[in-house]
Write a structure and sequence with these properties.
- This protein is α+β, with helices and mostly antiparallel strands.
- A four-stranded antiparallel β-sheet has the order 2-3-1-4.
- The chain starts with a helix and ends with a helix.
- The protein is built from nine helices and four strands, in the order αβααβααβααβαα.
- The chain has a single domain, classed as Nucleoside diphosphate kinase-like domain (Alpha-Beta Plaits, 2-Layer Sandwich).
- It has helices spanning 2-10, 20-24, 28-38, 52-58, 68-75, 90-98, 111-115, 130-140, 154-157, and strands spanning 11-18, 41-48, 80-88, 124-126.
- The structure holds inosine-5'-diphosphate (IDP) and magnesium ion.
- Inosine-5'-diphosphate binds at residues 59, 62, 67, 71, 101, 119-120, 122, 125, 128.
């Protein structure tokens, strides 16, 4: 029983934003395919236009940076798709799959490493850690917008 509890505890939810370049370039499906193939479960998804107000919260650590204006311009240039992905240690798994911030330094095989070349246009946002993920999910979703279901391959994916 205790073991099952520990495994369940490692099942996390994390926030992903498919950024405007992903939509404008028509590569949202490729990104979603990678996350699904990894075994992560999509439990919430919606399309929206971001605005400066929400970006000042979401990127509060960057508000004073000289590039913040350009970041807002980019992030409001087209709609985004905001999603919650669930899985074992999902936050660190999705961060690894996204790759580092600067896509030229991101490893091949990562989303940014394979699909992007210049900041800020790096295709995907992924929550930095578990605590931040919880805050970011609450910023964009009500509890009723986050779904619970079983993937058909769940028993095979997990030990
Ligand atoms: P992260 O997205 O890898 O977590 P952060 O430092 O949190 O990186 O920055 C958020 C986003 O702001 C980046 O993904 C990128 O789009 C943009 N950004 C970060 N640093 C720069 C920069 O030096 N110039 C332009 N845009 C940047
Ligand atoms: Mg960040």
């Amino acid at each position: 029983m205790q073991f099952i509890f520990l495994v369940k505890k490692m099942i996390e939810q994390t926030l992903v934003i498919l950024k405007p370049d992903a939509l404008v370039r028509g590569i949202t499906g490729k990104v979603i395919d990678r996350l699904e193939s990894k075994g992560l479960k999509l439990v919430a998804s919606k399309m929206m236009m971001l605005n400066e107000e929400v970006l000042k919260q979401h990127y509060s650590h960057l508000v004073d940076k000289p590039f913040f204006g350009g970041l807002v311009e980019y992030m409001t240039s087209a709609p985004v798709i905001v999603q919650v992905w669930e899985g074992k240690e999902a936050t660190s798994v999705v961060r690894l799959m996204a790759g580092v911030t600067n896509p030229r330094q991101a490893q091949p095989g990562t989303i940014r490493g394979d699909f992007a070349i210049d900041i800020p246009k790096n295709v995907i946002h992924a929550s930095e850690n578990y605590e931040i993920a919880k805050q970011e999910i609450a910023r964009f979703f009500n509890d009723s917008e986050i779904y619970s279901y079983k993937r058909i391959d769940e028993d095979m994916l997990y030990e």
